[in-house]
Amino acid sequence: MSLYDIEVKSIRGDSVKMSEYRGDVMLIVNTASKCGFAPQYKDLQRLHETYASRGLRVLGFPSNQFAHQEPDDEAAIEQHCQINHGVTFPLHAKIDVKGPGAHPLYRLLTSEARGFLGTKAIKWNFTKFLVDRNGRVVKRFAPTVTPDKIEPYIAKLL
Question: Active-site positions?
Fold first, then answer.
């Protein structure tokens, strides 16, 4: 299965085929509004504003799997992200990013880009995956790696 074969839901419940992003560079992030890393939303938004015209798609995927730091429903998540962080990049419906119920998108991402010491599992919120214009996962970044540190990798792919 290719990344482009996967379907996800938008934050408002609409079906979105990942093939809609064919030809774009994607930065895919599992997010949580109540996480200590939530200030990264603003930096992700800055990347979106700076590079969207060149083909970058920042895609947020809320998950409540880490210390229940995303307990709200999608409407509340969207509102929180817009009001507190100015987010306009695409957010999606809450998903599982690890374990037996992991969404197919995250099963694919973690199998193609391993984490620290070769682990597949997502360890925390704001793990980031950089995907090239051909749908190939090229790099995985730990939650502690801020978006500004990823910017040179993005610029190279654009």
Answer: 35
Instruction: Extract the tokens encoding 9.
Output: 């839901």
Range of the domain at 8: 3-157
Give the chain's mean pLDDT.
Answer: 94
CA distance 127 to 143: 5
Show the tokens assigned to 94.
Answer: 């809450």
Tell me how far apart the terminal alpha carbons of the chain are, to the nearest angstrom: 25
C-alpha–C-alpha distance, residues 1 and 19, integer Å: 12
8 Å CB contact between 152 and 25: no
pLDDT tens digit sequence for 41-53: 999 999 999 999 9
CATH code of the domain covering residue 89: 3.40.30.10
Total domains in the chain come to: 1
Helix (H), strand (E) counts: the chain = 4, 6
- Those residues whose C-beta lies under 8 Å from the C-beta of residue 146, and which sit 6 or more positions away, are 40, 43
Quote the DSSP letter at residue 58. E
Model pTM score: 0.95
Q: Strand pairing partners for 62?
A: 31
